[in-house]
């Protein structure tokens, strides 16, 4: 899988962040999603531990997703990005919330129903660094 494909798969890690954000006003663009998760690219491609910048980017995205439209927009960006992801890349993206100490009740999946992200759910923890 090329860097573009890996970047898109990495973006799937943000799917789970959508469900836990509070409420505000504009839909978030895919550019915003990808730029926040760009520091996660090496983790998604190669595994190991996500760098602190990756976890902070995920938290920034979570904080920005204030409305149902925001959460659904992010979900759609990530769902499109994750199509065709398999194996270790999918697994790494799916474990990103856990590795960043984020308590998110959903597993990342290309089959996620983005319409379910209309209500806010429990927030994540505030630990800024990844776990070992």
Automatic annotation (TrEMBL):
SUPFAM superfamilies cross-referenced by the UniProt entry: Bifunctional inhibitor/lipid-transfer protein/seed storage 2S albumin
Instruction: Output the superkingdom of the source species.
Output: Eukaryota
Instruction: State the UniProt keywords alphabetically.
Output: Lipid-binding, Signal, Transport
**TM spans, by residue?**
none
Gene3D superfamilies, alphabetically?
A: Plant lipid-transfer and hydrophobic proteins
CDD domains, A to Z: nsLTP1 (cd01960)
Signal peptide limits: 1-26
Q: Where is the Bifunctional inhibitor/plant lipid transfer protein/seed storage helical domain?
A: 30-114
A Pfam family for this UniProt protein?
Tryp_alpha_amyl
**What GO MF annotations does this protein's record show?**
lipid binding
Q: Which BP terms in the Gene Ontology apply to this protein? A: lipid transport
Which family does this protein fall into? Belongs to the plant LTP family.
What's the stated role of this polypeptide?
Plant non-specific lipid-transfer proteins transfer phospholipids as well as galactolipids across membranes. May play a role in wax or cutin deposition in the cell walls of expanding epidermal cells and certain secretory tissues.
What is the designated name of this protein? Answer: Non-specific lipid-transfer protein
Source organism per entry reads: Spirodela intermedia
